[in-house]
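Reposting from the mailing list since nobody answered there.

I have sequence plus structure tokens for a pair of proteins and want to know whether others read the tokens the same way I do. The first protein:
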Amino acid sequence: MESSMFLAKFWGWYLIIFFFILSLNPKRIKQIFNDLNDEKFLIITAFVAIIVGLVNILFHNIWELSWKIIITLIGWTSLFIGLLLFIFPKRTIAGLQLINIKLVQVIYMLLFFTGLFLLNAAYGIVPQ
């Protein structure tokens, strides 16, 4: 299977599942931000984000104007946030909390629609 298709399915399902988890249990996001104050959790989260982002980029670093750029941007975003969490933890957590507080509904809908878009690109449910 082509890496773009695999990653579209992976990220599509991941984003849809994450959307439903946050919608059904909105306290979970507050718990994640509280846990980021724990150094061990922060370091593990930063390393996981760096690894996921780097693996995504190594398998899929396609900069063409199609649905494939979304997968590339997810990888670069993950790598960038992981590095920021590792290098500037306090500032990064504060920035992420501010974004989450001001744009929580936009972020949830973006997760949902991006997931649907990627699943559609992978499975071809609605012809493009």
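The second protein, same order (residues first, tokens after):
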Amino acid sequence: MPAQPNRAKPGPPAEPSFDASHPLIVFDGVCVLCSGFVRMVVRLDRQGRFRFATAQSPFGEALFRKHGLRTDSYETNLVLIDGVAFTKLESFVAVMSALGWPWRAAKALLLLPRPLRDWLYRRIAGNRYALFGRKDSCDIPSVELRGLLIG
């Protein structure tokens, strides 16, 4: 009887690597609202610290899986700042806080009770395509954004 070839057991998916010294926003690339948020952050980030990835990219999907987020429906974005992961409304607040004043005032949203914050976020996220639109594919990024995209 011929010997069976050694087969490696599939392990956990490789952890995506990136320069964690830069805050990272992983966003729904076909969502008009999400893409508009990214363009706004690029304009406001005078120091050019933020990096971006679409959730639909292999890199973005790997990060979503790593943080226990669905990859078949992008109901939230994922923000990684100083090794800490933020989702839902907290991700928006984390980004605005990292941009400094006056944007840091968005922290006031954290005064709302978590159930109310989550309810508000779900209402917007669940209806974002109907309210703001959806593209058939991710935009071709501007030259400015192209240099900040990873994955």
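Reply #1 (J.P.):
I read it the same way you do. The helical segments are 32-44, 58-66, 88-98, 114-132, 143-146.
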